[in-house]
Amino acid sequence: MDFAIICLLVFAVILLLFSFFKKDRITKLEEEMEQMTLNHMQDIYQLKRKIKVLEEELLIQDVPTGNGKGFRPAAAPVSAKKPAINEILKSQVLSLYQQGLPLEQIEKQSALSMNEILMVIEDQQSRGFTS
């Protein structure tokens, strides 16, 4: 009887020591999961950056109105009242005007009407920022 207890005790100690040297599969899975999560977060960050760049480009690019008469800015609201002119378009018009381009050329490049271009220039000059 004493021999059986001693054998079982030795066997338990051997199993205990064996458990310390055995590789833990859970740890490996946790590391893989952590790596996948980091990759996923990096991908999301890059996609958000690309979306932000595309949104900024859309503010600058022109979109056809569908009436065949020309283009309107992508961010400009379509309404019966006078639409608000995007700040980017205002700065583009003022930059082209300061470079000495004729108003007709500014009209083509900015997709604004002649009245809107004149309104932007006059508004800027009334504020005291003349070229």
Mean pLDDT, to the nearest integer, reads 80
User: Low-confidence spans: pLDDT under 50, at least 5 residues?
Assistant: 63-68, 73-81
Q: How much strand? A: under 5%
CATH topology name of one domain: Arc Repressor Mutant, subunit A
Order of helices and strands: HHEEHHH
Number of helices: 5
Round the Cα radius of gyration to an integer and report it.
35 Å
Helix residue percentage: 55-70%
Which CATH class of one domain applies here?
Answer: Mainly Alpha
Class by alpha and beta content: mainly alpha
Strand order of the largest sheet: 1-2
| Shape, principal axes of CA atoms | rod-shaped
Distance N terminus to C terminus?
Answer: 108 Å
- Give a quick account of the main beta sheet: strands, pairing sense, barrel closure: 2 strands, antiparallel
How many beta-strand runs? Answer: 2
The assigned CATH architecture of one domain is Orthogonal Bundle
